[in-house]
Write a structure and sequence with these properties.
Length: 109
């Protein structure tokens, strides 16, 4: 089962000014989605803190790209956490393909 993963970043929380810069992102709100070849889906979401330190290279808010923010997110999480989230999504998809539990309507309803 091949799963395609896609990051979304619906909101970036920023300080209006910080360390001499404007619109400095410090929280990334993220969602990681996965879809298999048969269109079964799973997702996880959360936030991650990122830190800008005065003197570090700074990317103006208007110049941020999805790839840059994804890099920040994955770096802040670490590879083990990213892999754990992907496994969680794979488990969600597997549960759709081969359910281990079902909800049944009572026979008297």
């Amino acid at each position: 089962m091949a799963i395609t993963y896609n990051w979304e970043f619906p909101t970036l929380t920023a300080y209006p000014t910080h360390a001499g810069q404007s619109d400095v992102v410090f929280v990334v709100h993220w969602r990681l989605n996965g879809t298999d070849d048969d269109n079964h889906t799973g997702s996880v979401y959360g936030t991650v803190s990122v830190t800008y330190k005065e003197g570090d290279p700074f990317i103006p808010f208007a110049d941020l790209t999805k790839e840059i923010v994804q890099g920040w997110t994955e770096e802040a999480m670490g590879i083990d956490t990213v892999d754990a989230y992907k496994q969680n999504i794979a488990n969600q998809i597997q549960e759709q393909v081969t359910p281990t539990q079902v909800n049944l309507t009572p026979p008297w309803a």
